[in-house]
Amino acid sequence: EKGARLCATKAPPKRSGIVYTGGVMQIKTPHALPMFKDEEVDHRKRRREERKDPLKSRAPEFVKSGPGTGGRYQVGYQQALLASLPGGVSALAGTKDKIAAFKTEDPREEILKYAKIAAEDPHYVTPAYANSQPQVKA
C-alpha cells in the first residue's frame, strides 16, 4: 500500500562515535589538557600583561618624535601641506615676488579691461542681459 513512502520515512540507523574515529580517539590540541594548563597565572595578571603587549591590546602606534625614528619617516604638518600643493615644495619658490606683483596690480583695472572687451564684442555678454547690466563708471 505505502510503496515508495515506506523507505522515505525510515530513519538511518544510529551509530556510535567510536565507529567514525576508528575506535581510537586522538587529541588534536594537546595544550588543552589540564596537565599543560598554567594555573598560577591569575586572570588579572594575564590582562595586565596583555595590556602591555601592543598586538594583543590592539593599541594604536604612537607618534615618534625626531626625523626617521624607528625606521619610519617622520613628516610634519608643514611638509604634508607643501606636498599637497600642485607644484609640491617648489610651488612656494618666489612667493614674495608673487605677493609683490599682486600688490602692484589693481584688481579694478583688470575687471574693467574685460568689461571693455564685453562691450565691444557682445559674445561674452549676451544681448538679453544688455538692458539689466549696471553702468560702469570709468
Automatic annotation (TrEMBL):
Region (Disordered): 34-70
UniProt keywords, alphabetically: Repeat, WD repeat
Biased composition (Basic and acidic residues): 50-61
Cellular component terms (Gene Ontology): nucleus; site of double-strand break
PANTHER family noted in UniProt: GASTRULATION DEFECTIVE PROTEIN 1-RELATED, WD REPEAT-CONTAINING PROTEIN 70
Protein name as annotated: Uncharacterized protein
Organism: Haptolina brevifila
